[in-house]
Amino acid sequence: MTLENLLLLKVGLQSTCYVLLSLLLLISFVNFTAAETEFFIESLAEKAAEAETQKTTVVSGKEGWLFFAPELRSMSVGQFWGDAAPRVSRASNPEFADPLPAILDFKAQLDRAGIELIFVPIPAKTTIYPEMISEHGHTTARIDEYHLKFYDILREQGVNVLDLTPIFRKNRFTDAGPVYCKQDTHWSGQGCVLAAEAIAEAIGTPSWVAEIPNRNIETETRTAEITGDLWRELGDEKLQKEQLRLTYIKEGVSASWRASPVVLLGDSHNLVFHAGADMHAKGAGLPDHLAHQLGFPVDVVAVRGSGATPSRLNLHRRRDNMKGKRVVVWCLSVREFTEGQGWRKVPVIR
C-alpha cells in the first residue's frame, strides 16, 4: 500500500470516528432533553395536585411569577383528544370532552358559508417561561409536544392553526416586557401586540379588506399597575403589585363593531386590557391592537370563562348565520382543551 493510500485511509477513519462521535453526542443530547422534558411535565403534575389538595388555584414560581394550577394540570395530562379525552377532561359530560369534533364541525359550518377560520390557541405561561415554575424548566425543547401533535391533526383536516409559541419564545425577554403577566392568568399588553401582529399577517390583504375605509390610528404607551387575578387569589398583600407597559389605541376603534367582517371569538384573553374593570384597562387589549393592525374594528364575541362552547353559543343566539363575515379568529387558552366546560357542537350556521 502506498503512502498516499495510507494517508487517505487515516483521513477516512478519522472522518468516520468524527461522524460516530457526533451521532453519539446528538443521541445523548436528545435523550437528555427528553428526560428533562419528562421531569418538567412530572413537576407540573405534582404542583397542580398539591394546589388542588390545598384548595388553591395559585402556584408560586420564581422571581415573583405566579401560575394558574389548572393550567399546570392541563400541561401534564398528555393526549387530550380521541379516546383519551374523557379520562383527562374536566368537562362534566364525557360526551363533550374531545375538542376535535367540535372544532372540525365549526370549520365545516364556516366553510359552507365561505368564511375562513383561523384557530389561535394561546400557549400556556409555563410553555414560554418554564424556568420560572420548575427547576427542570431549562430545557430548550418545546414542552407542549401534545399540542404540536394536535395542531398537526387539525392542519391535516384543513384548519388554519396559528401557533404563537415560536413568536412568544423569541420575544419572552425584551425591553417591551414579558409576554405574560407575572401575577395574572392572561398575557401581557406586549403579548396582545405580538398576537395582533401575527393574526393580521394570517388574515393578509384579501380584496375585501381594501373595501373597508382605513382610519388613521394613533397609539400611546403608559405604565399601569394591575391587580392580577392570581395576586388576588394568593392573598399576600406584602407582594408588590405588578407594573405593566400598556400601549393604548387612542382612536375610537376599540369598541366592538357588530358589522365588522372579522369576528374575534374566544375567552377572556380577548377582553383583558380591553373591557376595563377587572380586565385592568380599556383600549389596550387584543381587539384594540388587531383593529390597529387592520385599520378597522373587529366584532368581539368573547366570554369570561370558557371560550370553547359558550362563545359559539353567543354566535348561535344571534341567528344571523354569520352574514357579512369573512374571517373568524378563534382565540382561546390551551387549557380549554381539558379544563373548560367541554366542547359541544353548536349550530352557528343553519
Summarize the entry for a quick read.
By secondary structure, the protein is of the alpha/beta class. It contains 13 helices and 9 strands.
Radius of gyration computed on alpha carbons:
23 Å
Output the strand order for the largest sheet.
Answer: 4-3-9-7-8
How many distinct beta strands?
Answer: 9
> Proportion of β residues?
5-15%
- Poorly predicted runs of 5 or more residues: 5-11, 21-32
Give the fraction of residues assigned to helices: 40-55%
Overall mean pLDDT: 90
- Put simply, the count of helices is 13
Provide the succession of SSEs. Answer: HEEHHHEHHEHHHEHEEHEHEH
How far is the first residue's CA from the last residue's CA? Answer: 83 Å
Would you tell me the structural class of the helices and strands?
A: alpha/beta
Largest sheet: 5 strands, parallel
Gross morphology: globular
Account of the 3D structure:
The protein has helices spanning 3-53, 69-76, 85-88, 99-112, 125-128, 145-156, 165-170, 189-203, 207-210, 229-234, 286-294, 309-318, 336-339; strands at residues 58-60, 66-68, 116-122, 160-161, 219-226, 242-249, 262-266, 299-302, 327-333. The protein has 350 residues and is of the alpha/beta class. The strands form three sheets. The chain has a five-stranded parallel sheet with strand order 4-3-9-7-8, with helices on both faces. Strands 1-2 form a two-stranded antiparallel ribbon. It has a two-stranded antiparallel sheet with strand order 5-6. The protein starts with a helix and ends in an 11-residue tail after the last helix. The model is unreliable at 5-11 and 21-32 (pLDDT under 50).
